[in-house]
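To fix ideas, we now present one chain and its tokenised fold:
***
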Amino acid sequence: MRRISLIAALVLIVTARPAAQHAMDLRVDQARLSRLDAVLQQYVDENRIAGAVALVLEDGKPVYERAVGWRDKDGGARMTPDSIFRIASQTKAITSVAVLMLVEEGKIGLTDPVSRYIPAYAKTTVAEKKGGVVQVVPAKRAITITDLLTHTAGISYGTGTDVAKRYEAKGLGPAAGFGWYTADKDEPVCGTMERLASLPFVAHPGEEWVYGYNTDILGCVVEKAAGMSLDEFFRARILGPLGMTDTHFFLPQEKKDRLVTVYASGPGGTVERAPDGARGQGHYLEGPRKNYAGGAGLVSTARDYARFLEMVRNGGALGSVRLLSPRTVALMTHNQSGLLHNGPRLGWSLAFETTEQVGGSGLDPVGAFGWGGAYGSVYRVDPSSGVVMVLMLNQIPNTTDIRSKFQTLVHQAMVP
């Protein structure tokens, strides 16, 4: 009887396999993907975006790459595939990889209190609002490394009305561009993050998903655990080995002509040049070059960032270079925040937003992951079909729907 049951089970597995395989066997249809050409060009022609670079990889190979519009519209410089963009929060995933590399080496523990590396976080506080009055109270527990990776530490960017004045007084929140900007600071990132620890946060650890300085704090943790600056760690351990030669915290002068001008969605939805300074062009060329922000500090290209994502999609390796083990990558690409981040439709892993239900993020399949940056960029990885998609633009604020249109047009090209 047991033998019959075993045979029946094997038959079920064998007969079910083609259907399961068929569900995953989607490939990029080039004719359908070419629909992107017209849409990207339309947004440029209508002056809704100044320019962009779109790149799609399938199983690590480029199947779509387009540069549209202008790198510098006023200067007459056309966008090119090697144009360099400010990638803001796309930096976060790279910092998360740095943390997990040190976890694999036994130098950081996921459940470690942050205070083990930055003592200023031993006793943090929370701004609680009761009866219309804000009271600063001790945090219910210590903040851990995992809290920071999942954005569940209760740490915002300090721009909310309950805490904004306190943050601004210490050079953060409203005093830091849109809250996250530190490229103009004449101090190392650990100095900034130690000062942050003296300010009240907006939720108790583990109770809410709050987007903020979490990954900037992790950048300081990497510096403490590795005994080198975040810039040095990135160059030696991640960017160099992966061949990401155009990714920097501050741009070398010889590459300045490839840096994209920042634009902004103005009145009527048309673009205009963004101002100089923290809320526009930034200090990535002429800044103090001292503050390596793990949360939002890098500049990069579509090609470079796609290489990084391909490493993640491939289980932690790119060619002969391995940064992480497949088990660590599985941990960092699956939801680790329960229902706190848009649950049950979307989750947050140790580095990315994850799609938990069909319809959670447009046409994303369950298991896809990605994020974007404040300057308008977006990226998504679909492990089920081997696709990596990256759209780079520098537009802040960006009031267009180009990011969602880009993702939809890539997904609709996936057919049996």
